[in-house]
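1st attempt posting a full record on here, be nice pls
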Amino acid sequence: MADDVLTEAQIDEALAELPGWSYRLGGLAAVYKAPTAAAALELIAAVGRLAEEQNHHPDLDWRYRRVFLRYSSHDAGDKVTRRDVAAATAASAAAAGIGATAEPAPQ
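the predicted structure (as tokens):
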């Protein structure tokens, strides 16, 4: 798994292809605002399905219409791996599918 760990430059390159995502708290993080609380729950369910399919589960927090996601690979020492990039990409597509928009991550 250590060979899958991304360098800082690789993380920056991946983030250039992931609008709304940033490197935060040792992982890839994003905040999505859904049109309604029900839509936020739809996003959470979609991310849950993706997590099961990929066997890769994010840290997730739900606050009314906002869903906070953070991916890091616990089995790689809580570092960012290619798996995190793939999961973030899939979560972004799920968010777009329910009309959620990325917001700047809180500082």
